[in-house]
Amino acid sequence: MCRHLAWLGAPRTVSSLVLDQPFGLRHQSYAPRRQQRGLMNADGWGVGFYVDAQSAPVRWRSARPLWGDASFASVAPVLSSGAVLAAVRSATPGMPMDESAAAPFSDGRWLLSHNGRVDRRVLPARHDAESVCDSALLAAHIFAEGPEQVADTIREVASADPGAYLNVLLTDGSRVLAVTWGDALSYRVDTDGVVVASEPDDDDVRWVDVPDRHLVEVTSSGVTVTSLER
Ligand code: GLN
Description:
The chain contains five helices and 13 strands. It is of the alpha+beta class. It has a seven-stranded antiparallel β-sheet. Strand 5 and strand 6 form a beta hairpin. The longest helix has 12 residues. It is globular, with a radius of gyration of 16 Å. It binds glutamine.
């Protein structure tokens, strides 16, 4: 399973969010602490974030391990944003290995990361998917159904493929939506914003674990967590 993270709040540098935390995504790329499937996340990584110059997010993705990306490490300290979504990848067997299969996927203002796997036969074949990777097809399906409907879409995909793992993380720059369906997720409320992540990136006592099959919504007014079970 991959690992992902989102930040919503006051501008922070991409390095502080993605590289510098003791158990952050760089550490998780070779030694995740809570990963139940897969030992490391060496099959690529990506980050997307919002800048003043344009409404669509910018992305930087790679098929290489995050821990070895010295060029990105030199640039990340001067990139900053109030909304950031990043992921490190452990590819599901049979999926493409190039950077187009690395999250975050994007559509207009939205960014999306999927932590899990899903049988591609239950997803509509979409010509606008960024890759034939299951996560890219799932992203295209969620974008087409409407990101605000992500809870309904995940329920529908899960009923078509009961063996699927479907943790997803989305942002449009002003809110973060996260679904737990088969894997871990935690969040931490700081004085200047909220981090949502597959696993805590430090040992701060403020981390809150999200139960399975829940929807997390983060806006400037706070965090809500609701059950997806009817
Ligand atoms: N299935 C996706 C891929 O192959 C995500 C894998 C994961 O969560 N480890 O990239």
